[in-house]
Amino acid sequence: MKAIVLDGAGKAFVAGADIRFFVKNMKAKRLDAIQSFTAAGQDLYKRIDNCPKPVVAKVDGVSLGGGTELALTADEIIVTDRGCFGFPETGIGIYPGLGGTQRTRERIGADLTKYLVFTGQILDGKSAVELGLADHFVERTEVAAKIGEIARSATVKKRRQRSVPERYDAIARFFRDNSADSIREGKADTKGNEKLAKPAKKVSSKAPIALRIAEELIDKGNEMSLDEGLALELSRLEEIFATEDAMTGLTSLGKGRPEFSGR
Q1: Exposure string (b/e) for 180-209, b if CB count within 10 Å is 16 or more?
Q2: To pair with 95 at 20 to 30 A between CA atoms, which of 18, 149, 180, 194?
């Protein structure tokens, strides 16, 4: 069977959405334009989900935000030493709106999805495969052969949730047992464990409204079908882009870490 390969055209796989588009429309009070843009993106990603041929994502460069969300539409994700994954959105006042709170959960479960979305942690290729977010880590010289192997043997398959790797077990429990607000406010007990203290510190600098909505989307989506979860994700979009925190975060790029007001 032949396969379709998703690949970046430059040094990145996909570095993310055009922030200037968001800011321009927020200043013009055209949140409907942002909503329409994201709805069209979700529709495209669903078409990849439902493609009758196997789809392979070749992540040989930076894959952030919408780029990671695009990779997650694939049946198989190949990553090299130049590839990485991450959701920086809560650090700029918004949340992943192209399936990041939903397709990630299908692969690695709700607890580790919260870890990635709340912290904005960037995963290198080997870490992504270990966590279950990606499927194959290969050397750049071996990518073509791996794609050929998948194309010859692959069939379209439904995503399957991986078991939590032992190294991430404590982190998964931490994000299962503590709310986004309690972690951000420093009320969650890290038990003196540096492996918990570091992600907790990352969460403390994120936008509180974005964290809260992302948490609701992940928790509620965990009880829904993928399509229902994606619709829920889309339904909160205008709300988040109307916040002061979103404007603060999206206009802060290149100017240092933003200070969020929770409004």
Answers
A1: beebbeeebebeeeeebeebbebbeebbbb
A2: 194
Do the Cβ atoms of 81 and 115 come closer than 8 Å?
A: no
User: What confidence tens digit (pLDDT) does each residue in 3-41 have?
Assistant: 899 999 888 999 888 899 999 999 999 999 999 999 999
DSSP 3-state of 55: strand
User: Comparing C-alpha atoms, which of 217, 209, 215 is closest to residue 244?
Assistant: 209
| CB crowding 160-178: b at 16 or more within 10 Å, else e | eeeebeeebeebbebbeeb
pTM of the model: 0.94
Q: Tell me the CB-side half-sphere exposure of residue 137, using CA atoms within 13 A.
A: 16
Bridge partner list, 255: none
Which of the following CATH numbers is that of domain 4-250: 3.30.70.1130, 3.10.20.310, 3.40.1440.10, 3.90.226.10?
Answer: 3.90.226.10
Q: What is the mean pLDDT of the chain?
A: 93
Residue spans per domain, the chain? 4-250
Higher-pLDDT residue of 215 and 53 is 215
Q: Which residues are catalytic?
A: 69, 89
